[in-house]
Amino acid sequence: MSFFDYFQIASVALFSLIILVKTLYLRLKRNINPIAIGGGKRGLVLAVEVFAFTALLAWMVEILLYAFHSEFRIFPWPLDIQLIDSLVAKLIGVVLISIGCVLFIMAYVSFGDSWRVGFDVKSPGALVTTGVFSISRNPIYLFLNLWFIGTFLINGGLIFLIFAILAVVVQHWQILQEEAFLTNLYGQPYKNYLARTGRYVGFSG
To answer: Smallest Cα–Cα separation from 12: which of 181, 203, 148?
Structure first.
């Protein structure tokens, strides 16, 4: 196993650990259910949310299978085709994932009790606009995009390119749905936030 294998295993472990700790803290200490996937949603929104969550789990398993050099694959062998195998690409992938992980940790610190998996139509938390959310409205989605793209650069397989493209497209669609939901929920304060903070990074026009 190489440095890149251990790095990917560590990234999956870090992501899973933070999600687990945050979920347990909110459930046990704050009496908040942060898992909002599927709750109160119907139609396309529900289908996309469930698909995205299931695909994320499958993608993480595939990362571990690659990192441990397992002969078993979730997806059929034609998707295992190697598109790139470059040390420079792998190093860029490590940098992108590392930046994403920093954003991810900062987002969970800033979120406080408002953190949810999926957007919560039943009991949403307070609007968060401080910390890393002052420079990005969607730092966790930005982290996920960097993680998907970085993973493709490290592994170079066709399956990871497909996942990266799907992730960027599906997450952008989810962001648009959440923006409409949050505008209705928080009203003018959220509109003011939209006006001053970029969707992914930076400042709005």
So the answer is: 148
CB–CB of 121/33 below 8 Å?
Answer: no
* Segments forming the whole domain that contains residue 120: 3-69+78-196
Task: Please provide residue 72's backbone torsions phi and psi, each rounded to the nearest 5 degrees.
Answer: -80, 140
* Number of structural domains found in the chain: 1
pTM of the model: 0.88
Residue 205 inside a domain? The answer is no
Asked if residue 203 is part of any domain, the answer here is: no
Domain contains 202: no
How does pLDDT run across 82-131, given as a tens digit for each residue?
999 999 999 999 999 999 999 999 998 888 877 777 666 666 778 889 99
